[in-house]
Specification:
Blueprint: H1 2-17, E1 20-26, E2 51-54, E3 57-60, E4 66-75, E5 81-90, E6 94-100, E7 104-112, E8 115-119, E9 124-126, E10 131-133, E11 147-152, E12 158-162, H2 175-183, H3 204-216
Parallel strand pairs: 1-10
Antiparallel strand pairs: 1-6, 2-3, 4-5, 4-7, 7-8, 7-9, 11-12
Helix pairs in contact: 2-3
The protein binds calcium ion (2 copies).
Residues 195, 197, 199, 201-203, 205-206 line the site of one calcium ion (CA).
Length: 229
C-alpha cells in the first residue's frame, strides 16, 4: 500500500512538471501581406495563404485560414534552443503555441522558409499564457531594422512584418537568394521557397518584392553574437 501511495505521489509530481501554457504570437510575413487589408474585423490586416501546386492547380495545404508554416523556438540567454515547434500561422497573423510552463524567461525566435528570422527584443516570461506581438509596435523585435512596415491598421498605426527574401535561410538577403530565385523561375510547388508571394509559382512578382533587400543586403541580428541561428 505504501509503495502504491509513493507511485501515486511520484506520478502526480511528474504531471505537475508537465504542465503547459499557451504562447500567443502575432506576426506577419512581408511576401504574403495584403496591402490595405485592415478592417474592423481584422484591424491589422491579413495575409494570403501560401499555395502549393498540384496537377497544374494551386491548392491550400493546410486550409484557407492558414498563411504559412513557421518555426517557433524558445532560446535561453546564450541562444541555445530550449523548445522548438512547427506551427501554422493564421492569415490574420496569429499563432497559438502550446509550450511547457517553464516559469522562467526565454527569447522567442521565429523563422519562416523565405523570410528573415526574428528574435523578441527581450526575453519573455514563459508562464501564465505569455504574449508576443511582432506586428506593432516595431520594438518587439530584436534589432531596430528587423522588420519592414507593410501597412497601417484601422487607427493608422504602422503594421510590421518579417522581411522577405532570405530564401536560403542564411540571415542575409543577398545574391545567393537571388540566384535561387533565378534558377527556379517558372517552377511551381511549395517546395520552391523563392515563391515569396505564395501564389504557388516562382516568377517576377516574387522578385519585385525582395529585390530591394538584395541590393541593400538586408540582414537581421540576434542577442548572442557567437550563437546566432
Ligand atoms: Ca540568404
Ligand atoms: Ca510567386
Amino acid at each position: 500500500m505504501k509503495k502504491l501511495l509513493l507511485i501515486v505521489i511520484i506520478m502526480s509530481s511528474i504531471a505537475i512538471k508537465a504542465q503547459v501554457t499557451t504562447l500567443s504570437l502575432k506576426l506577419y510575413l512581408e511576401g504574403l501581406y495584403i496591402p490595405n487589408s485592415s478592417s474592423s474585423s481584422n484591424p491589422t490586416g491579413l495575409m494570403n495563404p501560401a499555395q502549393d501546386y498540384v496537377n497544374g492547380n494551386p491548392i491550400n495545404n493546410w486550409g484557407p485560414e492558414y498563411a504559412d508554416i513557421i518555426t517557433v523556438e524558445l532560446r535561453d540567454n546564450s541562444c541555445n534552443v530550449i523548445f522548438s515547434s512547427y506551427e501554422k500561422l493564421f492569415t490574420d497573423g496569429t499563432c497559438n503555441v502550446t509550450v511547457p510552463d517553464y516559469q522562467t524567461s526565454y527569447f522567442i525566435f521565429v523563422k519562416n522558409r523565405n523570410h528573415l528570422w526574428v528574435f523578441s527584443s527581450n526575453s519573455v516570461f514563459i508562464g501564465n499564457n505569455p504574449m508576443c506581438d511582432f506586428s506593432q509596435p516595431n520594438n518587439m523585435a530584436y534589432y531596430s531594422d528587423a522588420q519592414i512596415q507593410v501597412g497601417v491598421d484601422i487607427n493608422n498605426n504602422p503594421v510590421y512584418a518579417l522581411y522577405s527574401g532570405d530564401i536560403d535561410q542564411s540571415g542575409w538577403v543577398d545574391s545567393s537568394d537571388w540566384n535561387i530565385w533565378d534558377n527556379t523561375q517558372n517552377y511551381c510547388g511549395y517546395s520552391y521557397s523563392a515563391d515569396i508571394d505564395g501564389d504557388g509559382c516562382v516568377g517576377s512578382s516574387d522578385e519585385s518584392i525582395f529585390s530591394t533587400w538584395v541590393t541593400s543586403g538586408q540582414t537581421t541580428q540576434c542577442p548572442c553574437n557567437n550563437n546566432c541561428p
